[in-house]
Design a protein that fits this description.
- The chain has helices at about 25-40, 55-70, 75-85, and strands spanning about 5-10, 10-20, 40-45, 45-50, 90-100, 100-110.
- By secondary structure, it is an alpha+beta fold.
- The strands form two sheets. It has a four-stranded mixed sheet, with helices on one face. A two-stranded antiparallel sheet has the order 3-4.
- A hairpin with a 2-residue loop joins β5 (about 90-100) and β6 (about 100-110).
- It is globular and about 40 Å long.
- About 15% of the residues are buried.
Length: about 110
Amino acid sequence: MSKYLTVVINDQPVFEYDREINLEDGQLEFLDKMDSDMNHGIKMSGELFEHPDMEHRTKFVVMNLIRALQQEDTTKISALCAYLTHRRPDVIEVRANDQGGSVVIDLVNED
């Protein structure tokens, strides 16, 4: 398994998160709280998903990760990357491309 989760925006690698970081109990509880909060529904692109599945949750987290990277919010970046590596361990790379005002997200899984 790849040691890093890599985030690529518009074909430029912008961040690498060490997948081998051991999270403390409080950090793991925070990931559970993120799931609990999303259980109440999430809104993306003006659409409400009342019962989001893992695909919706992943896209929601990735969109927030992109925003956190743009804002250089290191706390959010770490939390969102931790969520992805713990809830989607198969994902080794997040690719986001801005295409005329809409963001296209592609997840690369380890083969």
